[in-house]
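Hi V.,

You were right to ask for the full record rather than a summary. Here it is.
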Amino acid sequence: QVQLVESGGGLVQAGGSLRLSCAASGDIVKIYNMGWYRQAPGKQRELVAIVTRVGTTNYADSVKGRFTISRDNTRNTVYLQMNRLKPEDTAVYYCYAQIIASTLRLSDYWGQGTQVTVSS
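Predicted structure:
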């Protein structure tokens, strides 16, 4: 069984910074893409940033230049450094990973979500 556990959310003032972490654990054979999605109240879940196993990154236009995604393959962990936060970044942030587990099937896994609230 595979689990993704997030940490690092919280309340911050506009212009501030937060760093999210997500560690994958369990019967993991290999992890491919890892990333972060977010969902604001009344809105659909949207991609924030994604990073491939070899470090290629992709960002939503709304966070380019402010957020940085990175990963540590030795720790099965993905990070999201969020700088110059805006009130519109307020959302529940979900960690995501494509993982081959002991079943030898490639599957999508999600964390439980962590709340990020940016006050104006």
